[in-house]
Each structure stands twice: as C-alpha cells, then as structure tokens.
Amino acid sequence: MTGDESIAPSTARRLLAALARSQREGRLPSAVAGVTRGGRLVWTGGRGGAGGSTGGTSGGPGGAGPEPGPDTQYRIGSITKTMTAVAVLRLRDEGLLRLDDPVENHVRGLPFGDRSIGQLLAHESGLRAELPGDWWERVPGVGWAEFAQRLRADDVLYPAGRRFHYSNVGYAVLGEVVARLRGRAWFDALRDEVLVPLGMRRTTYFAEPGAARGWAVHPWADLVLPEPTEDSGAGAAAGQLWSTVADLGRFAGLLLGSASAGGILSPSSREEMAEVTGVDSGRSRRGYGLGVFSYEMPDGAVVIGHGGSMPGFVAGLFVEPAQDTGVVVLANATNGGSNDVAFEMLRIMREHEPFVGPAWKPLEKVDDEALALTGTWYWGPSGLGLRLTADGELVATGLGNPVRTGRFRRDADGEWIGREGYYAGEKLRAVRDAQGTVSSLDIGTFVFTRRPYDPSGPVPGGVDPEGWRPLY
C-alpha cells in the first residue's frame, strides 16, 4: 500500500518488488517495510504472514497469520542502541554528564571504570562484545547487581580508543548510566523523554498482543522453529525493544532533523551522532559514530542508521540525509538481509524519487561582521574562498591549489567553529588592523591573508622583503 500519493506508482512497485524478493530469497516468514520522506511515511508494504502472537496463542508457523502492516510489532534488537544513545546525549545536552567523563563518575565499582561515556557510545572502549554468562539473547537476563558482579577485568580486550570493537556490554552500562542520572529505569526515561514525544506508542519493552512471532528457519529445509523472546534484564539497553514500521519512521525523522522531532535532541548532538569516530576494519565503507553506523554506498551516497537482530528477528533503520529519506525493514527470522534491502530501497528512492530540496533563499538580514570575512583568502600560495550562506554558516571552498575546506558556524558565544573535516572544532578568528578592518584570519593558528604571503599581514616567519620574483 502507499501511505501517501507523493511517490509514483512505479516507484511503489519497485519498492514492493525489492521487499518481495528479500522475503522470498531470504526465506523470511514475514517482512514489512516503510519509506519516509520529510518525516512522513510515504510508502509501506508487507509480505508473508506475521505468524501469530509471541505468546503462541494464535497463528501458526511460517506464513500463517495476517500479512504484516505498519503497526505490526517486531523485535528490533540493536536499533535499541540508537535510542539509548539519544537518551545519553540528552543528558549531555542538559549538562548532567560529559562524553569524556569516566564511567566511574556515574557507575562505581566497574573493572573498566576508566573508560569514557563517549568511548562506550562509539564502541571504542575495548570491551568484549557479548554479555557475560550464557548466550544472553536466548536466556532470561539478570538485574544490574548480578550483572555487575559478573564483570571481570579480562572483559577489557583492547586499550581505550585503540580500535572499534562492537560491545553490547558497553551499551548495557550506558543504560545503567541513564537510569542512575534520571532516577528511574532506563526504559521509563526513554519512553517519557523520547518515545512518547515522538508519538512512538507502539515501541515497548515487551511485545504487545498481535506482535509477530520470532522464528528460526532451517538452513537446509523450508521448516521453522520458534525462538525464545526473553527479558534481557541489565542488557536491555543494548537490544530489548519491540517496535513497528510506523514508529521507527517517526524515529527516522529525529535522525533527519524533521520539525516534528524538534526539542528532543539538539541539532549539534544529532549531527555529532553521525560523525564517524571509529572505523570497522573489516568493512572498508562502514564507520561508527555515537549510536549509529555510517555507510558510504558504491555511488557515493552516505547512509546512517543501525541494524538489529535478536533470536527470531532482524531489523534495519537507515536514513540518507542528503535525500531526506528514511527506510525501515522488519522481519521475523533469526537470519535475514534487512540491511541489504533497506539500502536497495534507499537506492530506488534516490534514483526514481530524487529529493527536490528547498528553494534557495537569500539572507534575511545583512550581517556586516560576517560579510567582512567573506571573499578570497590565502594560506601562503593556496587560495580559500569564504561564502556566507542563508543559514548563517561560512562555507570554505578551495581555489587553485586548494587548502582544507569545510563549514564554520557561530556557537553560543559568537565564535566561529569548524563543523567538519580537518577544522572540525577549531576556531576561525578574525584579526583586525588598527583601523578595525579584518586584515587576516587565524584558523587553528594557520594565518590567511588577502594576498598570497601578504607582507603587511602577520605571516609567521615573515615574508622575504624582496617579495615575489622570477626564478631566474
């Protein structure tokens, strides 16, 4: 079905064909998907049968039960981590923690208390991947006290910040950080601060009646086996939740910065989530930020989001910011290609429903101070052009032999701060002469003057008094 007629029927057909192929070739008992544009669900489709309730009181194996729709619940596994990351970043935005805080500041007695909150978020803490004890996804979880007692010094596999190593343990700890700073259970805080404001009322800790049942599919026969759906206990913040295409479409709007998600997370924190800090050495096009993966597609498109899996379920939630598009794919099988079909759907939208984008508009008012910084500047012989945009940013572009480029934005104190690339976090400072005219720029101690090696500018090391000359 289509949730909105803003996409062409031919595009809807392509999306459904991609989902149908994934369900058929992946031997998924059921699969459901949705596509968002501009924070709205514009297409949904389902294949197969959801297989009855998780309690086993209705439906049967395989294709039994109704075809899934946008409100059918599935377990979403590690997409839960992205929601946990939002809860942690809200604490940071409120000044209740810093990303470089040692976790010991908030949860005492851990054998890796020196690891920082940011390292846990980015999977750079060096902690083991899985929770201690039996195969945690298939057995009842334990409470925090028992979980903490199970942790050992040898749960630390790598030095802090040394490499990306995916860790469910780290996100279990982050859930406890949220609980302690909010004074209530991790899920209660997440529900009240994120899920309810977004209208995600079908995103729950336990499955609700009518949720899809989880199945394992036999590798060599078209047979299925029911999978357990246990409470993860202290590990819940790493992969417990159940949700729907409709709800996760709303969460995609948060990742894309849609107006309907305003106020839940600061724009700077949302951008920071997508900034890659760790690179998965096993995958050349995959990196990790703070709670989300970042993928570079073969055609150069950049996609961010998270996959998820728990026994009986796979899930994918990915957005392409440049296209203002999100895709959600949910299925009830232990193994499946939810990420691949999500990427395929984003490609279909990119090629057949390209994002038009807003119309260009000029600045609403003149900013003389910012205008004085625009134009051509030189770092030695290398040229840089600074342009002031309607949203108040300075965009640096290379000229000739280009220097490092990027964007600068004023912070709350009026300082110009780099937003990307080499100059991310660095200050752009205007240097004025005795008459108050901007004579040069200082960007992280690099001096830019209006002329190449301007002898009247504060060029470190000085400029030869004879100036530019022929070589011979």
TrEMBL record:
<feature type="region of interest" description="Disordered">
    <location>
        <begin position="43"/>
        <end position="71"/>
    </location>
</feature>
<dbReference type="InterPro" id="IPR056008">
    <property type="entry name" value="DUF7586"/>
</dbReference>
<dbReference type="InterPro" id="IPR012338">
    <property type="entry name" value="Beta-lactam/transpept-like"/>
</dbReference>
<dbReference type="Pfam" id="PF24491">
    <property type="entry name" value="DUF7586"/>
</dbReference>
<feature type="domain" description="DUF7586">
    <location>
        <begin position="366"/>
        <end position="450"/>
    </location>
</feature>
<feature type="compositionally biased region" description="Gly residues">
    <location>
        <begin position="45"/>
        <end position="66"/>
    </location>
</feature>
<dbReference type="InterPro" id="IPR050491">
    <property type="entry name" value="AmpC-like"/>
</dbReference>
<dbReference type="InterPro" id="IPR001466">
    <property type="entry name" value="Beta-lactam-related"/>
</dbReference>
<feature type="domain" description="Beta-lactamase-related">
    <location>
        <begin position="20"/>
        <end position="337"/>
    </location>
</feature>
<protein>
    <submittedName>
        <fullName>CubicO group peptidase (Beta-lactamase class C family)</fullName>
    </submittedName>
</protein>
<dbReference type="Pfam" id="PF00144">
    <property type="entry name" value="Beta-lactamase"/>
</dbReference>
